[in-house]
């Protein structure tokens, strides 16, 4: 089982770009098959990221107000439970961010 439980809109221009802030390759700007028509290419929009990478993203970006939009309806409850059980301010901040934005 994976932990890609936090979904964000990587196409939003508000907040720090997830890929840049976390030091990942720039898959956030990639194109892939469109949902509506798989014969067409569309820019990636909503993507579920690792809950632990999301907590680091918040930390490196400078807080909840400095990140891209969260797709609240797509957050997996397992992430919320994991953040609640984890020790450390980084995970408490992630839980608080989800609570405040969603």
From TrEMBL:
<protein>
    <submittedName>
        <fullName>Uncharacterized protein</fullName>
    </submittedName>
</protein>
